[in-house]
């Protein structure tokens, strides 16, 4: 370098955002009731058959929510909850029934209900796609073990699942992280490599997110347009038919690189912001 020529050092390379690295996906956890099985329709039909009235679903749903909350809080087991829920339902209708009468009503309700289960139309194509993609599948469901395993078997769902985690068998219920982690542990999968899909925003989607899994809220009634909104990081779909595209866009699934397809809302937002 000639004498007198000022020396220059190369300017530091500009520091930009870390490049987005799509997470690996190995496990898809699925809720059962009102995610895969149309429980609401089955319960509506059953109540109408038992009472001759078609207007009792809202009352049953409200009583169920109150009693399931006690199960989630660890105050009741499922079998006791089922009996008390029916006792409370009958009392609201002005029917004071003794223990045997409540048990008889509950038994008839279960018998009729077991004939009424139906899968949503989008379930089997989605499960077949997930299996074909090489993903492991787990059912993660808040229910009593005996009845849920029977439902899963009767509807032909059992062969799809590598593991079934049921609240009534584990002694905890979603949104407790143990529910999600038990499935991950059983299948040797890190929670960060798993996604949970369910119809309840709080117990399914937010519970899974808090447990470190990817979270997908299945909003079949499209209520997110007018009411409940998913928090940042929770994906929303209105049908399981949308799930494959979402997973391919957001995750590296087995043998399928994440695409973040231009045109998806997530991709458009990312391109605008970063
Ligand atoms: Mg559900």
TrEMBL record:
Question: Where do the TM regions start and end?
Answer: none
Q: Which UniProt keywords are listed?
A: Hydrolase, Magnesium
Which GO biological-process labels does this protein carry? Answer: small molecule metabolic process
UniProt entry tagged with the keyword Magnesium: yes
Highest taxon above the source species = Bacteria
Which Gene Ontology terms cover its molecular function?
A: hydrolase activity
Cofactors that this protein relies on = Mg(2+)
Alphabetized Pfam families for the sequence: Hydrolase (PF00702)
Protein's name in the database: Putative hydrolase of the HAD superfamily
């Amino acid at each position: 370098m000639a004498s007198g020529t000022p020396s220059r050092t190369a300017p530091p390379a500009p520091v930009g955002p870390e490049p987005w690295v799509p997470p690996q996906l190995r496990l898809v956890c699925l809720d059962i009731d009102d995610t895969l099985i149309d429980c609401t329709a089955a319960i509506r039909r059953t109540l109408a058959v038992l009472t001759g009235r078609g207007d009792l679903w809202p009352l049953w749903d409200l009583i169920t929510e109150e009693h399931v909350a006690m199960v989630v809080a660890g105050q009741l087991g499922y079998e006791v909850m089922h009996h008390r829920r029916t006792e409370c339902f009958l009392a609201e209708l002005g029917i004071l029934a003794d223990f045997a009468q409540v048990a008889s009503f509950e038994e008839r309700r279960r018998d009729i209900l077991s004939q009424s289960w139906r899968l949503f139309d989008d379930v089997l194509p989605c499960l077949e796609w997930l299996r074909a993609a090489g993903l492991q599948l787990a059912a993660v469901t808040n229910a009593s073990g005996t009845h849920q395993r029977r439902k899963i078997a009767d509807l032909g769902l059992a062969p799809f699942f590598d593991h079934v985690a049921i609240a009534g068998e584990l002694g905890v219920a979603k949104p407790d992280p143990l529910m999600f982690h038990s499935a991950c542990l059983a299948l040797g999968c890190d929670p960060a490599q798993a996604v949970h899909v369910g119809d309840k925003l709080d117990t399914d989607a937010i519970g899974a997110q808090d447990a470190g899994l990817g979270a997908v809220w299945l909003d079949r009634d499209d209520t997110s347009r007018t009411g409940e909104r998913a928090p940042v990081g929770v994906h929303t779909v209105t049908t399981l038919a949308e799930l494959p595209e979402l997973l391919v866009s957001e995750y590296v699934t087995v043998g399928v690189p994440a695409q973040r397809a231009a045109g998806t809302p997530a991709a458009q937002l990312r391109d605008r912001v970063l």
